Amino acid sequence: MIERVARAMRRKYNIEIFDRDEDDGWEFSRDQAVAAIAAMREPLEVMTTAGAQKAAGFASAGNRMCNGYRAMIDAALKETA
Question: How many CB atoms lie within 10 A of CB 9?
Answer without folding.
Answer: 15
